[in-house]
Design a protein that fits this description.
89 residues, alpha+beta, 45% helix
Length: 89
């Protein structure tokens, strides 16, 4: 994954401290990835709406595939473990 994109995502994760950002999929294992898979965990929709505006600003430059889950949904599906995601900090 490109360093510039990773830095932008880390910046967003620090700005929106109630949200957690995770990477998973081929972008972390294959240098010839097609897209960047991102998991964003959130507590309330208001945080998510503001974040989506910022992400849309730079998503045209990168092939992003974003999954949004509440913390409760992630626990129910065990998504992080299922896809071997790691948190961006």
């Amino acid at each position: 994954m490109e360093i510039e994109l990773k830095n932008k995502l880390i910046h967003l994760s620090q700005k929106y401290f109630s949200l957690k950002f995770y990477l998973f999929g081929s972008s972390i294992t294959d240098p010839h990835y097609r897209d960047v898979d991102i998991l964003i965990l959130y507590r309330n929709r208001n945080d998510l709406l503001v974040l989506k505006t910022e992400i849309n600003f730079f998503s045209n430059s990168y092939p992003l595939d974003i999954t949004y889950l509440t913390y409760e949904e992630e626990k129910e599906f065990d998504f992080i473990n299922q896809v071997s995601a790691f948190e961006l900090k």
